[in-house]
Amino acid sequence: MKKILMIGTGGTIASVPGPDGLVPALDGQTMCKMVSGLANLCAIECKEILNLDSSNLSPRHWQQMAVTIAENYEAYDGFVITHGTDTMAYSAAALSIIIQNSAKPIVLTGAQLPIGTAASDAPNNILLAFKAAASDVPGVMLAFDKLVIAGSCAKKMCSQNFAGFFSINRQPLGIYDEGEIVWSEDALKKSPAGKFVIHTNLEEKVAVIKLMPGLTSDVLDYYVAQGYKGLIIESFGAGGVPNAENNWLFALEKTIQAGVKVVCATQCVYDGVHLDTYPIGSLAKKLGAESAGNDTIEYSYAKLMWDLAN
Ligand code: ASP
Fold it and tell me: Whose CA is nearest to atom 3 of ligand 1?
């Protein structure tokens, strides 16, 4: 039987009602007892490292999760991280960058309703996560509702619907069907390229600027003055910056010359950035802005933090 470590970090899944709304409270053992079918699946040990609403998580908590995995890597066959759903896609993206060459599954999951609530999605999601963690598919994944998604491609799309996470610009690694995960060929082919290692260094002076029609480029001056080292410009469509009456190009050039790395991302969920299509993109690229390509904003954010520190 495989031995899986369940790492608790909080979130709705572990929450109970408090005076001002839901607060994380339950430990892993208590939650596992509420999931039928787990006992025969694998041997489980639990460890609580945090007990937070995931909106209160920071990059240092991603580092803490990665260190916990590294410290326990040899002793277990796989890992389940229970997590709030609000920033779970950010943690999944960050862990998929920080943790390299894991030959073992590392699976994040959460729920839209607390496990103690009637008709909660938590038992299903925990069972799915353990099935993924007891598989031979390596690396960081996010399991939710009927999908197992690569950690680098997950996005929270719904604040209430049980099918809350989508796999962006890549097919899901697995689909849950009649109690079994049907893995994609891609997932079954996955294998680590080297030895397990974590690189936890992150540059935290990174920000995402969401463009709105009419937003002026003086916002860039603010970030340069505050010592930011990386900026992601989440603009429209194929990506780029305004270049007409409201012209961002001068401020962009100044920002890049000040040593700030600029990445162009898009507010579109699917199909990625294509800077060569229009002058708004190609002129930004000529000045040194990079493209986020097909990456989600969550992945781009964690990746820029990591790139600037490594
Ligand atoms: N606010 C909660 C959290 O992210 C939402 C959830 O877990 O679904 O911790």
Answer: 84
Six-digit token string for 14: 């572990």
What spacing in Å lies between the alpha carbon of 21 and ligand 1's midpoint?
Answer: 11
* Residue 305: HSE in the Cβ half-sphere, 13 Å Cα cutoff: 27
The residue nearest atom 8 of ligand 1, judged by CA position, is: 85
Q: Read off the pLDDT of residues 57-96 as tens digits, 9 standing for 90 and up.
A: 999 999 999 999 999 999 999 999 999 999 999 999 999 9
Express each pLDDT in 23-65 by its tens digit.
999 999 999 999 999 989 999 999 999 999 999 999 999 999 9
184 backbone dihedrals φ, ψ, rounded to 5°: -75, 160
CA-based nearest residue to 309, from 203, 177, 158: 203
Cα(27)–Cα(39) distance, integer angstroms: 17
12 within ligand 1 shell (Cβ under 6 A): yes
SS3 20: coil
The answer to whether the CB of 230 is under 6 A from ligand 1 is no
At 66, list the tokens. 């990665």
Has 9 been annotated as catalytic?
Answer: no
Report the 10 Å Cβ neighbour count for 141.
31
CA dihedral 167→58→215→237, nearest 10 degrees, is -10
88 in Cβ contact with 14 (< 8 Å): no
Exposed/middle/buried for residue 164 (C-beta within 10 Å: 0-12, 13-18, 19+): buried
* Full-model pTM: 0.98
- Rounded to the nearest angstrom, the distance between the alpha carbon of 113 and the centre of ligand 1 is 9
Ligand 1 pocket test, candidate residues 9, 12, 61, most atoms within 8 A of CB = 12
